[in-house]
Amino acid sequence: MSRTKIKLFAGNRLQQLRKRESLTQAAMAERVGISLSYLNQLERNHRPLPNHLLQTLCERFALTPSWFSDTREAHTIQALRETMADPVFKMAPLPFSKMTEAANQSPELCQAFLTLYRAYSFHQERHFEAALPSSPALEPYESVGNWVQEHGNYFHELDRAAEEFYKTLTVEDRQPDAALTQHLYARHGLHIVQNADMESRGLVWRIDQHTRQIHLPHNQPHESTLFFLAQIIGQLEQSRLITDILRREGPKDHNAQELARVYLGNYFAGALILPYARFLERAEKLRYDIDELRRHFSVSFEQVCHRLSTLQRPGAEGIPFYFLKLDIAGNILKSFSANRFSQARFGGPCPLWNVFRAFATPGQIQVQLSQTTDDAIYLNVARTVGHEGSSYADRPRQIAMVLGCSIADATKTVYAAGLNLEDHTMVVPIGPGCRACLRDQCRHRSLPVSGRMLDTGSHARGVVPYRALPEG
């Protein structure tokens, strides 16, 4: 099987670029050496953007290829597919081709439609209430997730602030926690104390302004202490920058803003303990080996995975990864994507995903090539994380995470070793969840695809007792 090549439709980006440069279509076409009619076709998404023209545009306008990425459109298409799978639309099914056209031609209208559907779903779930207060169409965590996604999980001002702060520290023997402890005492007069009662109170750190002490849990892992100290520094010293970012471009709902503030605080902490340039250089040298990076920087597996998903600084991009963290029940705890991958918004994730196999082999890395329903192929790296139980009565949370990149970037990683990336025989087809997945022949299907007419068949029975009739 030959490798699937995803066509890049960048009409919206071309129009944005042309308007930004105050160029007419004729002037733009002359600037990049193409005909006016060809540029018109590109802007209308009637033709994909070829690689040689992409390189020309980047050279002429000092841009990176990621600027023309159709990642946002891919996520919008996935959201439309899941939304249109709702039975409320069964009388007016929308073919996939039309969804793709809508996402490319009218992205603002698509977002308005998705927001309206969210509002509809919100009120449907609460229809039994006599009166509803004004409520957001999105839950706060959904608003924050969408906001982070729009920024490609990269916040330049905060990332640079963390990197510049790291340069002021005197870090010896790769022990930044000692440097952070010294800084907190010298700058803020705060002492670190171990408190055995923290865990029972559900706290990971607490600042006692009266005694000028920072209380941390007793006997916690080194990497946790490091991250918590970085969080505290971010709260004490970067609140103004975080507030400026939120005031300028953050979510408008109060609860969403508060969650976004927590996210940006965590982002700063991760950027501080893993400074961008140093981390990217080491990541590329080690071919993105997560365990090697974890040992080199004395951080956790999760901290490395999360940082790898943020390496999208213009002009110094790393591999665009997606990163998800799930519990054993399939609940998504974290979700960030710098590539086309988009997780299911309704229902559980696909059971064929290797992140679920990771629970059967705790602490071991699972590697998988998977193909989503838009024919994109990803290299996925999954592993469980977390701590063991401290007693018989303890119930530690079972968590796994998956880091994934496009097959086009797979050879840059150590995880492609031994894989024949040209042979797709063992590529696992995964979907966005059964509700929106169109793969009729999957024996792992748990329920019919929504919004489609079903045919149970009278003379034959398939691996599932129903199939969806073709669209239209």
Automatic annotation (TrEMBL):
Entries under SUPFAM superfamilies matching the protein: lambda repressor-like DNA-binding domains
Pfam families linked: HTH_3, Peptidase_M78, ScfRs
Keywords of the record: DNA-binding, Transcription, Transcription regulation
Superkingdom of source: Bacteria
InterPro entries per UniProt: Cro/C1-type_HTH, HTH_RamB, IrrE_HExxH, Lambda_DNA-bd_dom_sf, ScfR_C, TransReg_Diox_bact_type
Domain HTH cro/C1-type: 14-68
PROSITE patterns noted in UniProt: HTH_CROC1
Family in the record: Belongs to the short-chain fatty acyl-CoA assimilation regulator (ScfR) family.
The protein, known as: Short-chain fatty acyl-CoA regulator family protein
Record organism: Acetobacter cerevisiae
